[in-house]
Amino acid sequence: MADKKISQLTAKGARLAATDLVEISESDGAGGYVTKSVTGANITGGQITAAVSNTIGTTITGLTNAISDSFLLPANTFSSNCQIELQWIASRIVGLTGTTQGLVYINSTNSLTGATLVATGTNMTLTTVSNVRCVRTLQVRSNVGTLVSTIQQTATDYGAFLPTENLPFNNSSDIYFLFVMNNTTNVLLQSRNVGYKIVGYNL
């Protein structure tokens, strides 16, 4: 490897994992340098924007709870101790009476089968076409996430809401975020997810 330039080395092709080793040169204080290593966990602090999308998801029609959009968070994108801010925009696209809401589930596959509900958006009851931006903050400590209770129907967790619900959030495996529209009271309802953003901060 001594005869290769950095530009000739094989690209890692993925984010640093906590167990990866990175070679550094540290000053010896006398004008020279000593070669040492740091792990991926030592240098992965700070903000990571894992996903931003304004792609219009699949339209969900009728009385159903179904995936409109989804995003794969690759393993080790964040550390096992991190803070994640999740935003999504639910859209009611047919102005009829009835209730719809945007939900978020996580799963190891791109499916609602066996999925875990992590966020319940506010009820959308207007008879006009409307959008609502929803926000949740997920605190992860040792691969356990804490956030506002999923029985709380609200657009955001800003204000007096306290994180009260714990769920497994093992970032060492792939995690699908499933953006689901839940049409509950009118067979003619149509809705879809029209955007999402996932930002994390390793601690």
| Overall domain count | 2
Mean pLDDT score, rounded?
A: 87
Which spans of ≥5 residues are poorly predicted at pLDDT below 50? none
Helix/strand structural class:
mainly beta
Distance between the first and last residues' Cα: 33 Å
Biggest beta-sheet profile: 7 strands, antiparallel
What is the level-2 CATH architecture name of the largest domain?
Sandwich
Structure description:
The protein is mainly β. The chain folds into 2 domains: 6-43, no CATH class; 46-202, Jelly Rolls. Helix content is 2%, strand content 49%. The chain has one helix spanning 40-43, and strands at residues 21-27, 33-39, 46-53, 60-61, 64-73, 82-92, 100-107, 116-120, 130-141, 144-147, 165-168, 175-183, 190-202. The strands form 3 sheets. Strands 3, 4, 6, 9, 10, 11 and 13 form a 7-stranded antiparallel sheet that branches. A 4-stranded antiparallel sheet has the order 5-12-7-8, with no helix packed on it. 28% of the residues are buried.
In short:
The chain is mainly β and 203 residues long.
Annotation keywords:
seven-stranded antiparallel beta sheet, four-stranded antiparallel beta sheet, Jelly Rolls, 2 domains, mainly beta, 203 residues
Question: What is the fold's blueprint, element by element?
Answer:
Elements lengths: L20 E7 L5 E7 H4 L2 E8 L6 E2 L2 E10 L8 E11 L7 E8 L8 E5 L9 E12 L2 E4 L17 E4 L6 E9 L6 E13 L1
Antiparallel strand pairs: 1-2, 3-13, 4-13, 5-12, 6-9, 6-13, 7-8, 7-12, 9-10, 10-11
